[in-house]
Amino acid sequence: MPMPKSKTLTSAQDRYLATIYGFAEQGREVTTGELAKALGVTPASVSEALRQLESRKLVERRSWGRYALSQKGWEVAMRMSHNHRVLETYFVSVLGLSEDDACAEAAKIDAVVSDVLIARMCRALSWPNICVHGRPIHHGFCRGGGP
Ligand SMILES: [Zn+2]
Ligand SMILES: [Zn+2]
């Protein structure tokens, strides 16, 4: 089964998924207020974005006003996080960028970079387990297999 792509999402929606994924990695569901704070936007725009993500079945509303990724949202976010972390690791260890610059540059292209390019970067780096921020990198498609 092909992995879902996030190409049809707006970059703002991508950032929401990535942020919710970051909370999920710590075992947490997220509130509108926490998302607003993390993304530096108003709670009103968070509500609107969550409504769109919910209608696309990427995010699910849980109890107590908390939100979590759906299975589909999780797959999209996991792939994007993989790409982001591989890119920034490559930028730091091969190109010599600072961690902050590498992270900012990676954020611009992590949702649109091709599988072929990312897989080559993963191979060049020998499939690192953690990114420059110390967060886990889960390899899957880049090794020629499933997730
Ligand atoms: Zn980063
Ligand atoms: Zn990989």
CATH architecture of the largest domain: Orthogonal Bundle
CATH superfamily of the largest domain: Winged helix-like DNA-binding domain superfamily/Winged helix DNA-binding domain
> In CATH terms, what is the fold-level topology of the largest domain?
Arc Repressor Mutant, subunit A
Strand order of the largest sheet: 1-3-2
Q: Beta-sheet strand percentage?
A: 5-15%
Q: So what's the overall shape?
A: globular
**What are the segments in which pLDDT stays under 50 over at least 5 consecutive residues?**
none
How many individual β-strands? 3
Roughly how much helix do the residues carry, as a percent range?
40-55%
Hetero compounds: zinc ion
The overall number of domains is 2
**What is the overall pLDDT average?**
89
Name of the top-level CATH class of the largest domain:
Mainly Alpha
Structural class: mainly alpha
Q: Output the radius of gyration.
A: 15 Å
Number of helices: 6
